[in-house]
Amino acid sequence: MINISSVPKNFFGREKELTFLVKRVNSFRKGYRQNIAFVGQPLSGKTSLLNYFIQQYINSPDILPIYIEMQKEDFKSFAERFIGTLLYEYLKSIGKSPVQNFQVLINETRILLPNTISYIEKICKDFESRNQNDAYNALLQLPSEIKKEANKRCIIFLDEFHNLLYFNLKSPFTSFGKVMMVQRDTMYVITSSEKSTVQKILSEKLSLLFGNFEVIELKGFDFKTSEQFIENRLKDLFLENNLKKFLVYFTDGNPFYSDIILAKIKGICFSKNLKVVDEQIVAEAIEDLLFNPKGNINQYFQFLLEATAKSQTAKNVLIKISKGNNTVTKLRLSLGIPQSKIMQHIQLFLDADIIEKNGVFFYFKDLLFEFWLRAILYKRESGLISNIFDKAKEFQLEFGCFIDHFYHENNISNEEKIKKLMALFQNEIVEINEKRRILPKFEKYIVEFDDGNISAIIAKSGTKNWLWIINKHFQSEQHFCEAINNICKKFPTLTTRRILVLINGIDINSLLFTKEKNFWIWKLKDLNRILHIYNNIKILD
Question: In this structure, how many other beta carbons lie within 10 angstroms of the beta carbon of residue 515?
Answer without folding.
Answer: 12
